[in-house]
Amino acid sequence: MALLEIKNLSVGFDTSVGLFMAVQGIDLTIDSREVLAIVGESGSGKSVAMLAVMGLLPNTATVTADKMTFEGRDLLTMSDSERRKIVGKDIAMIFQEPIASLNPCFTVGFQIMETLRQHTSLGKKQRHERAVELLRLVGINDAAERLSAYPHQMSGGQCQRVMIAIAIACNPKLLIADEPTTALDVTIQKQILDLLMKLQERHGMGLIMITHDMGVVAETADRVIVQYKGRKMEEADVLTLFENPKSNYTRALLSALPENATGDRLPTVADFHMEGSP
């Protein structure tokens, strides 16, 4: 049985000009200990599909699917209270902008311990000890002292590490990382990716990596789904995708990598759109 299984997922939003379909007919499965990359340019519906899984879309969204299960449990018919027991514990998500996702009014220690309070039976002292352990695990120095820091007192890379600490606090079975290295410098990007892969291997999690960076895909993924305008263009294991891409859109993404430049000008996805649709 797959850890997460989705069939024919569609997500639409009510707008002033009618229903806008952000995701159309997506199929997806992931097992424990597997790394699945979902890749595509901004606006391709990557994040929206995963927010549907988390149950975090606004009321203006219409979510339909033939099947959406986690460990065989139906996420579509699950009550809000049942979903709250899973989200943050068994399924966790690292959001795209850590500064925006962390609450500026509370210390990072409070925000880590709140997750533990909601989903575990640990006492106050144990929650504090676990929070220190988590900050150390994600590579933050002076962990005990940093618990009292507010998000604005930490760097972007440190806030990203705090977000990871919150996400893994309850040892989730599935971790969704939404553009986890966005807006970080190259050195910090490498550290964050290495940390995620180490944690995934240590805890045996399923890991969904949402990205537009084909370099990240090559470095982390076992399997890849390519999305464009809310639709799945193709799915393959990572080696097959890079060596023999099937869709025009995937070839465009790969050709836009700097190492694939063949002339003075680097190709863009738009060049391939002019040659034909994906």
TrEMBL record:
GO annotation, biological process: transmembrane transport
Keywords of this entry: ATP-binding, Cell membrane, Membrane, Nucleotide-binding, Transport
A Pfam family assignment: ABC_tran
InterPro entries, A to Z: AAA+_ATPase, ABC_Ni/Peptide_Import, ABC_transporter-like_ATP-bd, ABC_transporter-like_CS, P-loop_NTPase
Matches recorded under SMART domains: AAA (SM00382)
Subcellular localization: Cell inner membrane
Alphabetized Gene3D superfamilies for the sequence: P-loop containing nucleotide triphosphate hydrolases
Membrane disposition: Peripheral membrane protein
GO cellular component, one term: plasma membrane
Recorded GO MF terms: ATP binding; ATP hydrolysis activity
SUPFAM superfamilies associated with the record: P-loop containing nucleoside triphosphate hydrolases
Homology family: Belongs to the ABC transporter superfamily.
Alphabetized PANTHER family for the sequence: DIPEPTIDE TRANSPORT ATP-BINDING PROTEIN DPPD (PTHR43297:SF2), OLIGOPEPTIDE TRANSPORT ATP-BINDING PROTEIN APPD (PTHR43297)
Name of the protein: ABC transporter ATP-binding protein
Annotated source species: Paradevosia tibetensis
Lineage per the UniProt record: Bacteria, Pseudomonadati, Pseudomonadota, Alphaproteobacteria, Hyphomicrobiales
